[in-house]
Amino acid sequence: MKHKWFGIWLISLLMPGVIASAALAEQFPAVVEAEVRAVIAAERDGALSRLDADTGDRVRKGALLGVVFHKDLILRKEAQTATRDYLAIQAENLTKLNARGLATDEELAKAKMDLAVNDKEIRMVENNIDRSKIRAPFSGVIVARHIQPHEWVQSGQPVVEMYDPRQLRIVADIPADMAVKLETGQESVFYFSEISQEVRGTLKVFAPQVDVRSNTIKVYWRVDGAALKKARLLPGMKGVLKLGAD
Fold first, then answer.
1. What's the pTM value of the predicted model, to 2 decimals?
2. CA distance linking residue 190 with residue 193, whole number of Å
């Protein structure tokens, strides 16, 4: 035993980098990613009359984040609704007259068709009104705002970006020969200097291919809610995977 430790001591004197390299041989850079992230875009052209969401805001699923101007659509709906009321009365009267033989089947069919067309036009306007409202697709945190209130937006233009802080994952590129020895569900230890904490993650999935340039496999770990709350991880934080650590 004494000879063994003497040998290690001698190597450390002659080649001090060897011991340090061995200690770091199973440590790999890792980064935190948002598992659920979305860029929410406008669904129609127009001036952004409201933008209530700002960077750092926590929002619930379905929350109204912004509104594209649509008062013209509201006025159009009101006009079409008034027309529908008239057409409905007309169709009702023609139904009664037709029963008494005072209106033809063709006249009644046309009145019903006009009413049906009007109903579809109202639903189309209602759909456009709904598309004017920009809502949160899930509960989360706003991380970016790409436009300011009252600016003009086009359909498909990004307005805000958000992520779900309850669903974060840690990603690391592992040499293929080491990655194949890992198993789904296996727990690993990561260290994040930004928060001076160790975090445990459960291996979730491997990327289905090897990077031919680096001969590595991208591996994803999931962090449970309690650990997330304690560590306060944020997307983009960089850490170190301590592969093989207890």
1. 0.74
2. 10
How far is residue 236's CA from residue 114's CA, in Å, rounded to a whole number?
57
132 Cβ contact list (under 8 Å, min separation 6): 43, 44, 46, 67, 68, 69, 70, 73
CATH of domain 25-38+165-242: 2.40.30.170
Average pLDDT of the residues in 27-41: 95
Domain assignments of the chain as residue spans, ordered by start? 25-38+165-242, 46-163
CA-to-CA dists, residue 88 to 18, 73, 241, angstroms: 89, 22, 70
Q: How far apart are CA 125 and CA 107, in angstroms?
A: 27
Class of the domain covering 46-163: mainly beta
Which residues, other chains included, contact 38 with Cβ-Cβ below 8 Å and sequence gap of 6+?
137, 138, 161, 162, 163
Can you read off the two tokens belonging to residue 92? Answer: 């009702």
d(CA 145, CA 48): 13
Averaged pLDDT, 202-218: 92
Place of tokens 């004017």: 132
pLDDT band for position 26 (50/70/90)?
confident
From CA 65, how far away is CA 140, in angstroms rounded? 12
- Tell me: the pLDDT tens digits for 99-154? 999 999 999 999 999 999 999 999 999 999 999 999 999 999 999 999 999 999 99
